[in-house]
Amino acid sequence: MGSFIFLSGILILFLMIIIFLINFYRNPERQIPPGNNIVSPADGTIISIIKTGAKNVSVRKGLVGKISAFTGDISGQCYVISIFMSPFDVHINRSPIEGIVKSVKHSPGKFFYAKNLEKSLENEKNEIVIENKRLKVKAIQIAGFAARRILCYVRPGQKVNKGSRIGMIALGSQVTFIMPAKGINVRVAEGQKVKAGSSIIADMG
């Protein structure tokens, strides 16, 4: 009897893990809104919206971690929007605009660097810059400490459509999005849930 209960528990746990992984790696189709707008690069919750003229911004990653985000290559005045992705959100990242991938830059981050606690909290990140005739934007994929795995599906020079898949981040993670402030009307607020490719985060004037 005891062995049956133990094996049943193991089977239930195994099935729960399979269901979780199937749910985590789901890749649904999305209805991409037409018009002069910018869509969310990630599923999740808006955790911060910053308007800044600084060339470098320190962005916090959840409760633990941070990244240094360079905004000087996008515009003099920028919006920096961070989206937290829980393990239950879809983790496929999508292009916020139609355009050409200008650059892809991966940074491994620093992990448990004992001599400098501040630097030891820097997360792995991957920066994707996309540009069209109207504007340039940057989507930064940020890995968590538990699962440091970022997948990027695009390369420099590649043309992408608004809402097309550009990458994925394993397990709990975050996407920080940078766009010019001039001529942009932000449509989201902190605490709001968004979906990659289908939620409009800003209109272009």
How would you describe what is shown here?
With 205 residues, this protein is mainly β. The chain has one domain: Distorted Sandwich (Glucose Permease (Domain IIA)), CATH 2.70.70. It is built from 2 helices and 16 strands. The strands form 4 sheets. Strands 11-7-8-9-13-5-2-15 form an 8-stranded antiparallel beta sheet, with no helix packed on it. A 3-stranded antiparallel beta sheet has the order 1-16-14, with no helix packed on it. Strand 8 (125-131) and strand 9 (136-142) form a beta hairpin.
Q: What portion of residues belong to β-strands?
A: 35-45%
At CATH level 3, the topology is Glucose Permease (Domain IIA)
Shape: elongated
CATH H level, superfamily name: Glucose Permease (Domain IIA)
Which percent range fits the helix content?
Answer: 10-25%
Major sheet strand order:
11-7-8-9-13-5-2-15
Write the layout of secondary structure elements.
Layout lengths: L1 H23 L12 E3 L4 E9 L3 E5 L5 E5 L7 E8 L6 E3 L4 E9 L9 H4 L4 E7 L4 E7 L7 E3 L6 E2 L4 E5 L3 E8 L3 E3 L6 E2 L5 E5 L1
Antiparallel strand pairs: 1-16, 2-5, 2-15, 3-4, 5-13, 6-12, 7-8, 7-11, 8-9, 9-13, 10-12, 14-16
